[in-house]
Amino acid sequence: MLKRSFGSSHFHCNYYTMMLLLIAVFLARLSSAFTAIGGNNFQEKYPYVRKTLLGDSSTVRRSVNRKEADISFNVKLNDFFRDPLPEQVTEKVAVSSTAASDANNVVSTILSPPGSPGVPRPLSTVIVASIPTGLVWYGYYKFCIEEELFDIEVKAGKEPKGYGGYGTLGPFTYGLMLGPLAEILNLPGGLNWSGVGIAFIYYTQFLLYERVNSLYEEEGLEPPLTVWWCWPIFFPFNLIVGLRQVHFLSEYFYLKQGNQPTIDPVSEFFPFISSKNFTWQDFVKKPSLWCSL
């Protein structure tokens, strides 16, 4: 128990009170951010939402309808987690109009910022960059594709279904931090509180798969992903649909550029990654889907 003295009074502040204070501060910050977005000082407080292509800059500046920005929680959440970051950082990873054309080899693709049109990132490239970095680069991949899909939805005049790169990784990161914080403060549940972040990132995966399917449907193509496979209890199908998402989103971005997709060795060797949508029964009954040997 922590004790604080003020004059002749003694205030006893337990860990639960401290947590409530932290949460109250966070909610106050969140509320003030959302109020600012809806108010007259929107552009001054959040300059990165209303972006336009300026001069020779290669950065694609978002043009967000004022009404849409005022009512969209997803836009506000993305801005809330982007706003505290240094401008030098946000500009480096801003959506770029030249990113897709500049990403002409494995290294440039790995280092590429989000693009408009989106940058094709073949599955083999994602694996090559993710495994040696302990999946750290996969976090960057997740950021990029969330920013790209967010940009597509906003430019189409739609209310975004996703939360953008910042609105996705921000809550995930802070959610993970709840576990260590609860452990330090000796709160019930301890590290299990990190499950808040994990649950959130799983939810964004559901949204991601639905959004990839929607992109294909808008092109008059069959949606390639079985969304409910995302549930962790459906192993190995949750892994399969994740691999298929990487592959088919990359294929979609090639399609939008008018380019032929490159031959991806991983997808070629494992037909279940690149095959048209199939059921779990098909996967079990057809060994030809497993590998190309």
Describe the model.
β1 and β2 form a beta hairpin. This protein starts with a strand and ends in an 8-residue tail after the last helix. It has helices spanning 15-38, 42-45, 66-71, 73-82, 87-92, 99-102, 106-111, 123-130, 136-155, 164-184, 195-218, 237-257, 265-269, 271-274, 280-285, and strands at 2-6, 9-13. By secondary structure, the chain is mainly alpha-helical.
Strand tally: 2
Class by SSE composition: mainly alpha
What shape does the CA trace take? globular
Q: How do the strands line up in the largest sheet?
A: 1-2
Mean pLDDT: 79
Order of helices and strands: EEHHHHHHHHHHHHHHH
The percent of residues in helical segments reads 55-70%
Low-confidence stretches: 1-66
- Biggest sheet record: 2 strands, antiparallel
The number of distinct helices, counting runs of at least 4 residues, comes to 15
Our estimate of the beta-strand percent is: under 5%
Radius of gyration over C-alpha positions, nearest whole angstrom: 22 Å
End-to-end separation in angstroms reads: 64 Å
SSE order and pairing:
Elements: E1 2-6, E2 9-13, H1 15-38, H2 42-45, H3 66-71, H4 73-82, H5 87-92, H6 99-102, H7 106-111, H8 123-130, H9 136-155, H10 164-184, H11 195-218, H12 237-257, H13 265-269, H14 271-274, H15 280-285
Antiparallel strand pairs: 1-2
Helix pairs in contact: 1-4, 4-10, 8-9, 9-10, 10-11, 11-12
